[in-house]
Amino acid sequence: MSAIVIEEVGIDGIDPVMAVMNGAFDPGYGEAWTEAQLLSMMTMPGTWLSLARIGDSPAGFALNRLIADEAELLLLAVAPESRRQGVAMALIERSLQLLRFRNGTRLHLEVRHNNPAIELYKKAGFIPIGRRPGYYRGKDGQVHDALTLSCPA
Ligand SMILES: CC(C)(COP(=O)(O)OP(=O)(O)OC[C@H]1O[C@@H](n2cnc3c(N)ncnc32)[C@H](O)[C@@H]1OP(=O)(O)O)[C@@H](O)C(=O)NCCC(=O)NCCS
Predict the structure, then answer these.
(1) 91 lines ligand 1 (CB under 6 A)
(2) Per the confidence metrics, is the pTM higher than 0.85?
């Protein structure tokens, strides 16, 4: 099997990232970003986008933003066919590594309270530090709480 290779990308990486985005998120929750939203965030200072590939195929991506000495993992997604091979864990490790490189101290994220990704985040060293009631609204109008998780860099 090919190794997981991760690199930071700019606008040149939008097509493979959007390919992963459009296949990864459950449409029922409306959590996928549009290309316009992604491009807009990438113009913000302190933002970086990491793309993971397995062989020639885009496998996953992570979008981070550093403000002062703390960062937020804004998006993390892995293509369905590339899951349970360590891609997301490798992307989180890369986010923490780049955060340390930029003298950051903590990585935060928000995740829907019933997203199985919480197991991944706990395994990666994140701990729950808060809960935001009704933070997400699904396509069906149902609201879901967000958990705020945090990990030292
Ligand atoms: C959540 C997601 C990013 C995981 O990606 P992945 O590459 O399959 O994760 P990894 O292979 O790195 O998983 C590492 C460990 O995390 C845990 N884990 C990962 N996905 C899990 C799941 N769906 N349920 C329970 N535990 C999970 C497991 O302990 C796993 O180790 P194991 O495979 O040896 O059991 C992927 O399922 C995804 O893109 N989901 C849709 C988008 C999303 O919800 N993103 C997160 C919120 S923004």
Answers:
(1) no
(2) yes
